[in-house]
């Protein structure tokens, strides 16, 4: 039996739990959250899924009630407490594999501090930007010419620019090839709006990214938007349009049907892969940090400029 924990039993954490119930691996699972309501929601959702193999599920309000040896931990909290949770976890337990939700942290200094801790404790860690596991992007990667620039455009209506940009950056880098990039927020509206998740911030407008290989990414989120919400990818004279919500993608107008999986349909696959091979298709922590840090720094500088502050962090989740 493998010892697994999910820390954070909210909307996303409870979906991870549902996913674990479909894993082939036999597991003892500990779900941790300070909120009794969240634990109850997780339990209700867990009971909606029939496990394929033996799963013993325990619910707790404290990391200190976890076993001292854990094979895999998924940290599905918001970004505000995540760094302190990882520190507390690794102080209490020996952890072999770790999966962190994005947005990783609010403070730039946390990235290197956690990297050093993971190295010290010999923990292999990935960041859950799951589109790398989606069938559509597997197929798209096969038709992308890696020797030509990849241009990706994604506009929509109030879709959570700060919260979701790193997902788009991650899949752009997956298709284009890992590379440093610049961040341009000159076309972002000079106002801070409240995120749908209390205590976090959002932005509106257009963000632009350019990689060291000439790849480009443009992300736009607007209050009033009536255009296409499909993700447009241009490469080597070809145009690909991805309509995730419709389970479709088009290659030069040719229609392809594909399944867009929910997190509950991915976590079991992810856990089995990590536990049997020691690897998975998610971005390793060191790679994802290269996507998070330049974006977070740009947003911190932007917010400080329009608010006249000198903060070293920004609450993105």
From TrEMBL:
Gene Ontology MF annotations: nucleotide binding
Database matches in Gene3D superfamilies: NAD(P)-binding Rossmann-like Domain (3.40.50.720)
Domain Gfo/Idh/MocA-like oxidoreductase N-terminal: 3-128
Top-level division of the source organism's lineage: Bacteria
InterPro entries: Gfo/Idh/MocA-like_OxRdtase_N, Gfo/Idh/MocA_Oxidoreductases, NAD(P)-bd_dom_sf
Listed name of the protein: Dehydrogenase
Organism: Bacteroides intestinalis
